[in-house]
Write a structure and sequence with these properties.
With 83 residues, the protein is mostly helical. It is built from 1 helix and no strands.
Length: 83
């Protein structure tokens, strides 16, 4: 029977050649995943910007209503003091 070392050493170049193809497949899969992740991150950025704009708009609208209420309250106080 042949020595195990004599059987393993000749197999190593074959294994490396096979693994090279698998490594390239893995690299391509990682690139595809990175592209998808980049797309998701871009959509999250635009979503965050939309949320920020929405909260800003609601603050502006709320502030405008608060100003109107304060104006009406002032007018009511003025009317109450005139009686």
């Amino acid at each position: 029977m042949a020595d195990p070392v004599d059987m393993i050493i000749p197999m190593l170049p074959e294994m490396r050649a096979e693994n090279a193809a698998f490594h390239e497949q893995t690299r391509e899969l990682v690139r595809a995943l990175e592209r998808r992740l980049g797309t998701i991150e871009q959509s999250q950025i635009s979503y965050r910007q939309a949320l920020t704009a929405d909260s800003l708009l609601s603050k502006l609208v709320t502030g405008e209503f608060e100003e109107r209420i304060e104006t009406l309250e002032r007018k009511v106080r003025q009317l109450e003091t005139q009686k």
